[in-house]
Amino acid sequence: MTSYEPQIYNSKITGYVFACWILAAFGGLMFGYDIGISGGVTGMDDFLIKFFPKIHERKLHATENNYCKYDDQMLQLFTSSLYLAALVSSFFASKACTVLGRKPTILMASTFFIAGAIFSAAAEAKWMLILGRILFGVGVGFGNEAVPLFLTEIAPIQHRGAVNILFQLFVTIGILIANLVNYGTGMVHPNGWRISLGLAAVPGAVLFIGSLIITETPPNLLERGKVTEAKEALKKIRGVEDVEEEFEQIVAAAEQGKLVKKPFKKLFVKSAFPALFISNIIQVFQQFTGINAIMFYAPVLFQTLGFRTDASLLSSVITGLVNVCSTFVAVFLVDKFGRRKLLLQASVQMFISQVAIGAILLTHLKDSGSLDKGMAALVVILVCTFVMSFAWSWGPMGWLIPSEIYPIETRSSGFAIAVSTNMVFTFVIAQAFLSMLCHLKAYIFFFFSAWILAMGLFVVFLLPETKGVPIHLVEERLWRQHPVWKKFMKTTDGSNNGMP
Questions:
Q1: CATH 1.20.1250.20 assigned to 15-488
Q2: 36-45, pLDDT tens digit by residue?
Q3: d(CA 35, CA 295)
Q4: What is the pTM of this model?
Q5: How is the chain split into domains, by residue range?
Q6: 114 near 205, Cβ under 8 Å?
Q7: Which among 78, 183, 93 has a CA at the least distance from the CA of 127?
Q8: Where in the numbering of this chain does the Major facilitator superfamily (MFS) profile domain appear (predicted)?
């Protein structure tokens, strides 16, 4: 596939623009903290005794089926309800992004997240827990819509991949912090779980303050007719006065975007199909790698393998640390090697890791008892190799590529559908994993392996390289030159390349 050298415009990285990148990326930390915190909390005895006493009783029985002791729909709903709320709210977030701007949408995300933290920490009944999760979910829906778009739109093209991946990097940092918090609060009785949930307000507060400091993006200001403010914002984020060439390109894209009155309808014309398909299938694949099953329920999973509660939380910390360090690989390499090479390499490594985990559990972990120490340690290592490869590939690319492949007129609405698809399948995995683990047992890892194989084939045959492609030239350089997707593009005479 063709890879383009980026068109370089005048810019320098100033302290202000770097601060904008970091402060906005706290939206990812907010999301990651929630992913990591829920699994640790659901493994805490004090939490189970208060809200899920039957599960705690089941957990105490040594003869209980290893694979089924956490199989409970309400316990899974505690984790998954957030993603259902994020799914619904992402469409409201898309409208807010377009009408109000990226900056106010980020502010709203932080507000909802802080409210969710307060409600969750104060919970005395299951309905309060679920309501707190829903508030978290609305915050995630707004944040996951606005932050990747914001980062993509303010980044210089030569650094666009690395800047956008800051979102995923902060997701991994959030997961690691959550694992460390859970490891500490797991020893605080009886309210350690309240501390874990309540501390979610900290990244929310940082994002709230950050939303007051960051600038609005030039494309969104132009989209709302604020030409002077857009040019000043571009000068501010580029750190130079001479931004005429880049500004003219953004203006041209914005003018084209104004011709589209119903962006959601525009997404369903034939020529928009490649971007719509790719941005959404990547979300499906990202979830069916099995990564969130591991990250949500890592402590529970390690307890299933025979680790004690404290040891399982420590193992989660180790995987969280691997997750963070490996994401730096993507930050430094994505704009050098491109998106496809990282995705393909990782697909091979993830496939091998999942198959090996499944084989070990199938042959060594029965319904009762536990793995011996050597095999348990090997599973932790394999989980780390899996997490490692995901962290420099499908994790960050799941947010980067959809933010790169839409033209300005459908970018917000197209990305909203991608976010909602991500949340649908995150919800499915969160709600179903513990039941799937109970029924499929070790075969669940072969189930995820099959999906990873399909992902690799998708990259080989259907995914174009987006490295160095200006957003306003995606149709010309991506779709019209791809052997499959060019068939969906209108020719210069207005025909559909033989398509009906």
A1: yes
A2: 788 778 778 8
A3: 7
A4: 0.77
A5: 15-488
A6: yes
A7: 78
A8: 20-467
